[in-house]
């Protein structure tokens, strides 16, 4: 089993966010600490194009054995290619072929080792993936609308529910944990996976940082946790 933590240097929403300090620690440190509670250091691969991120991670005592090539560090580069690159590096360098990959994005600082362990316990080799989710507030049966050909808004999913609580539950990927079958990953992108099982997380532990507002909310969560 290997763990991949993708940490690109460029970030438009929050510049330098992967090593920006949150609660006195670089953001990426929260993910590394959670991973280290479960996995050995030689199972954890931080994939980055940034020398600053590499130095920050190595100052935490975790070796970064490769630098991501420039073509995988652009805004257009997909996560699929990044994961395959990390997997190929691991197989070529260590002579091992892991059956499972755990993808942990550094933008989920409140996801912890317990969450990762619980997601792993749901996984077996017959699946393509276990993925962490939260129940979405933007239910397509109730509050989401799409514009039709006449320019009028209509429900994204057709239904006649009068109350939100009567609608089916809908799950939103929160970006915190992906437990991936490496054979499935080699054969097709994650977007084409069909054998997917959910791991449900609460709203706080699901918080993902993508924008300045997300960062402000994360600071507020951190203060409430420390008070």
UniProtKB/TrEMBL annotation:
Keywords, ordered alphabetically: Nucleotidyltransferase, Transferase
Record carries keyword Nucleotidyltransferase: yes
Pfam families linked: CTP_transf_3
GO MF term (any one): N-acylneuraminate cytidylyltransferase activity
InterPro entries for this protein: CMP-NeuNAc_synthase, Cytidylyl_trans, Nucleotide-diphossugar_trans
Domain of life (superkingdom): Bacteria
CDD domains: CMP-NeuAc_Synthase
Signal peptide: none
Identification of the protein by name: Acylneuraminate cytidylyltransferase
